[in-house]
Amino acid sequence: MMDEAMKEEVKRLFDEAFAEANPDSIEIGSPSKGGVIKVYGNYARADEFKKKIEAAAALRKQANELIQGVAP
């Protein structure tokens, strides 16, 4: 089992690796109009970033439909 110090070190390393792989972010939407999504990615890998944005937008739409009682 991992002790607390080791857990914190693993989390720190994970966060650092994530930040290096996804140095950029974009926020889309507004809280009053369906919610905000924030997508992390790398602008240098535009195709991958676009796929993340599309997936996040689809999930946002699906979540709004569930909240409003509309079947997806």
Please explain how this structure is put together:
The protein has about 70 residues and is α+β, with helices and mostly antiparallel strands. The chain has one domain. It is about 55% helix and about 20% strand. It has two helices and two strands, in the order αββα. It has helices at about 5-20, 45-70, and strands spanning about 25-30, 35-40. Strands 1-2 form a two-stranded antiparallel sheet. β1 and β2 (about 35-40) form a beta hairpin. The longest helix has 23 residues, at about 45-70. The protein is extended and about 45 Å long.
Which structural class should the secondary elements be placed in?
alpha+beta
Uncertain stretches:
none
**Number of E-type strands:** 2
Q: What is the rounded distance between the termini? A: 42 Å
Placed side by side, the strands forming the largest sheet appear as 1-2
Main pleated-sheet profile: 2 strands, antiparallel
Mean pLDDT rating: 87
Order of helices and strands: HEEH
Taken as a percent bin, the fraction of beta residues is: 15-25%
Silhouette: extended
| Residues in helices, as a percent range | 55-70%
Oligomeric composition of the shown chains: single chain
In the residues, how many domains can be counted? 1
Which radius of gyration do the C-alpha atoms yield? 16 Å
Number of helices: 2
Write the layout of secondary structure elements.
Blueprint: H1 4-21, E1 24-30, E2 35-41, H2 46-68
Antiparallel strand pairs: 1-2
Task: Give a concise summary.
By secondary structure, the protein is of the alpha+beta class.
Key features?
extended, 2 strands, 19% strand, 2 helices, single chain, two-stranded antiparallel sheet, alpha+beta, 72 residues
